[in-house]
Amino acid sequence: MCDQQEIVRNISDFFTSKVMRAFGGKVDPASQALGIIATSLKDIYRYLEPSFFKGDIFVCKDFNDKTCYDEAKGIRLYDKNVLLNYSDSLMIIQVFNENSRMLLWKDQDPDKLLKRKKTLVYHFKANKECFFANGTKIDVTIHDRGSRFADQFINLSRDLHEYSASKIRKSSCSHFFQSWAEDDRIFFRGGGSGSNIPEKFMQLSLHEFLSSVSRGISISPLREYNTMGNEAKPKPVDIMIQWREANRIALIEVKFIGIVKKDSDGSIYENGDSRVNEGMRQLKDYFDRAATDNPRTLIKSYLVVIDGRRNNVTVATRTINVADGMHYENKELVIDEDKQFYKTMCNFEEPIRMFAEPICR
Amino acid sequence: MDDQVNPEAFFDSLSLAHKLDNYFDGFKLEEIHLFSYFSSFLYCYSGESIGTWPHRYTASNGFPFSATIYTAIKRHIQNGLFENKEEYYIISGRGTDEFNKFKGLSNFRSRERILNAVCTTAILVPYSQTVRALLNEPDLQKQIQLENGSWLNQMSFYPQFKKISDAVGIKANDLMIPAIELINSLSIQK
């Protein structure tokens, strides 16, 4: 339990307190400006993904709603889709008490803004965000990428990690549990060509989880597996998410690695890193296709890798000890250099490995 | 014959739904109760007596629950102001029109100030942290453990919070700052 002094210290260190202190006696206009900037950012970032953005964004609020630059040189911002046109430039947006009013300038000097006394200024650049309050810079960055005011992709990433911990780690999801050949979770089930087993249980599990936890999204229905092997018809990505009120799409491809025991004859085969690399290549194709079809939509691609690798396993293995069962718990995936798109493209997330434990005897 | 819904419950639930949907792309019905409960603390902070706050709460499934808010929500769903979208609800176009119609009425203006502050707080403090902090409120926690359906004592944490807020020393008429202080107090005091 924290003592009162510590609580007071923590609250005083929170950025909103710092903003208020920076403006001295003008707490109420500063607080109002902060609220208006925050709600405006929520709105602006529906159209613009900060983690994709290469330029500078300034959002300012003058306490008395005096325009910060010559209004004639600015653009009255009513269709915010135009923000996508300036993904690598300088943008200064002024917001007003009248919530719907926004003015955009592209070629003004931001230093002039920072010198204004009764103006609160927000700045985002290269995944860092801060407020300028009466000459004081107050850092508000909490995420490695993106902004605290744009949480669509951040929340999806968080939900995927939560899924890994709560559903995959101990095979707690009943759909996912059906992926295993036996109760000890050593081998995945192999249903044979065209059956999409075990993948279909993994896709169903993730689909159900995301449908229940994620806000404001529509998830594509699970595809009918291409049992006829129609090569002419390209396979769609496993899961596609669209935000209802934000200009964003997420593509999720699910792969698994580990040992598969065939239902038909009990023989085994292994899926390893090559399967993951194949997944990355596929995901890049899906991304390219989706980007062509939706050139004005912000798209992010995720590879989910269910990791059921076990050590020292043969076709005769019935039980597994801790050393062999957990051998791969912390062994990372090996991705070929030419498929590490997440290092060069903001539209790709690093593959999310979800280790699934066996029952160890 | 249906009785008329409590007017404050009608407005509060509509206003909270409008903001939660607008900022966070949908809402769960229990979140309306939770943010209404949050609002009652700010009502006290603004100098009013908790005795005149129109809603009382019990603990239900880990969340505060108000019967008046529940009745209003049921009516909004029935009238098409709230729409069910899988696990979440959204406010319909009609719901937004209805909210815009009522928010200008003088008897709801002071309530809107409070409801606006609690929802804006959930943008400035990450939403999940805001919800966790509110669910961590000591009296709610106590009643969840007791499971006896007693009223939540909306004033038990308030004196401690007021002392903390005074010690931080930011004097504001605007309610967003105390709302943030309240959430931070609840987050830290665990």
How much is the average pLDDT of chain B? 93
Write down the secondary-structure element order of chain A.
HHHEEEEHEEEHHEHEEEEHEHE
Structural domains of chain B: how many:
1
Strand content of chain A: 15-25%
Coarse shape of chain A: elongated
CATH topology of the largest domain in chain A: Restriction Endonuclease
* Rg of chain A, Å, rounded: 25 Å
Structural class of chain A: alpha/beta
Order of helices and strands of chain B: HHEEHEEHHHHHH
Beta strand count of chain A: 14
CATH architecture of the largest domain in chain A: 3-Layer(aba) Sandwich
Distance between the termini of chain B: 47 Å
Mean pLDDT of chain A: 93
- Count every helix of chain A, treating DSSP H or I runs of 4 or more residues as helices: 9
Helix content of chain A: 25-40%
Largest beta sheet of chain B: what is the strand line-up? Answer: 1-2
Task: Tell me the radius of gyration of chain B.
Answer: 16 Å
| Quaternary organization | heterodimer
Low-confidence stretches of chain B: none
Overview of the molecule:
The complex is a heterodimer of chains A (361) and B (190). Helices cover 29% and strands 22% of the residues of chain A. Chain A is α/β, with parallel strands linked by helices and 361 residues long. In chain A, strands 2-4-3-1-5-6-7 form a seven-stranded mixed beta sheet. In chain A, strands 8, 9, 10, 11, 12, 13 and 14 form a seven-stranded mixed beta sheet that branches. In chain A, helix 2 crosses helix 3 and helix 5 packs across helix 7. Chain A is elongated, with a radius of gyration of 25 Å. About 1% of the residues of chain A have low confidence. Chain B is mainly alpha-helical. Chain B has one domain. Chain B is 63% helix and 7% strand. Chain B has nine helices and four strands. Chain B has a two-stranded antiparallel sheet. The radius of gyration of chain B is 16 Å and the shape is globular. The chains are: A alpha/beta (361), B mainly alpha (190).
